Fold this protein.
Amino acid sequence: MMDYMTMTADSPPTRSTAIKLYDESGFAGMRRAGRLAAEILDALVPHVVPGVTTGELDDVVRRMSIDGGGVPATMGYRGYQHSCCTSINNVICHGIPGDRKLLEGDIVNIDVTPLVDGWHGDSSRMYIAGEAPIKARRLVEVTYECLMLGIEQAKPGNHLGDIGHAIQKHAEKHRYGVVRDFCGHGLGRVFHDSPEVVHVGTPGSGPELKPGMFFTIEPMINIGKPGVRMMEDGWTAVTRDRTLSAQFEHSIGITETGCEIFTASPKGLHCPPYG
Ligand code: MF3
Ligand code: CO
Ligand code: CO
């Protein structure tokens, strides 16, 4: 049994196991936070080139978050010190920005979470430094398709399992592995809230989707097997079999008829190549 709780503008921002259902004031807050996330990801495009360091990209994200009236929610989150995550090649997620220079053909996920007026916009995209081999480009493209096929299932009356199923079916058709160890999540005034959004599943299983639910969908897809290995830094997750991994993430809200993508790109920069 899954229960739901109705949120209003003055409900407290606390984590809960119940799934929160937000009103129009929540949609307004998420629209602003999501838009800033998308603008940051748009603005990063010309910066993601061979020779740039992930630390320099982190500086761009921090400056843009603050200039846009927000603050990166990752700074100080469980001891994390950076403004975004930069996950290169075989890194699945939570890569830590630093001195690593991007090399020609690297694929990199940049994941940003600006906190604006108490609301979290959480989104990530893949970028390609220079030109990458077809094998890498194909993974990136199919991973984006997985995200959008999941989003197509995000409507009232469907269940979370319908989203996971659509993603898994598409990834496995291409013989890719869907990561199980990390999930999408509810969000709003809380960064990581209920429900857990698993990227595999059975149609009709899991909680029913209702208008006012806010959550992310963020499939991580590996060319090889789904297995994860954690690095000694306690954050960086890499593919156990060292194959390439890709990820895209949107924050969405369930509406009466489907869903609203809070983090859609204003410039139409959805998936590489960006121009
Ligand atoms: N943005 C990530 C997500 O999609 C979370 C990053 S938490 C961090 O949920 F601490 F690693 F930055
Ligand atoms: Co997320
Ligand atoms: Co994220």
About this structure: The CA atoms of residues 176 and 223 lie 5 Å apart.
